Amino acid sequence: GNSVTQMEGPVTLSEEAFLTINCTYTATGYPSLFWYVQYPGEGLQLLLKATKADDKGSNKGFEATYRKETTSFHLEKGSVQVSDSAVYFCALSGLTGGGNKLTFGTGTQLKVEL
Amino acid sequence: DTEVTQTPKHLVMGMTNKKSLKCEQHMGHRAMYWYKQKAKKPPELMFVYSYEKLSINESVPSRFSPECPNSSLLNLHLHALQPEDSALYLCASSQEGVGANNYGYTFGSGTRLTVV
Known about the structure:
Strand content of chain B: over 45%
Number of strands of chain B: 11
Oligomer: heterodimer
Structural class of chain A: mainly beta
Mean pLDDT of chain A: 93
């Protein structure tokens, strides 16, 4: 079956530091890949996506590239802010016999300090 | 309208109560989902509706009963829950088929359920 593996958290960074959160996946077929962000007490928001190999998703300074050869979709940001503190989930979407299923990684908590 | 609206935002219920969670979207999405999220864990899929028909039930106990009255509404009926069912319940919607893969899923802000 499909699965997503994320680096363990929490990740603590100083403001303006460079961020990388690693994500690798196992899937059959041609899944799409997503990063979702969850702020405290809220639901999930789609941060960025990529639907095929070598696609780069980007939003709000965050980027991730769909690497089929390494089955990875690492999240990066050049300069984090305190407001980026949240939990980040890597996910993949694939069609199953019953319909679409979104499979999540375990989530990585990011804390950004002044 | 690009939102998924969930009500109520918070719910406290006793183990003998019957309550319902509601979810609404007006994006024309024909796939709708219920997820359960425990603290510090990723969301776990419970049910998938496709064109108002239940297509996936992830072996969820019968004390949770989903309903999709029309293409915009999704309910989750709760009965005889246990304290361990306390969690954040998230509703999501997407286009069907390849559309879900191409455009992603839109999540509501969730209902925080406490069973006492």
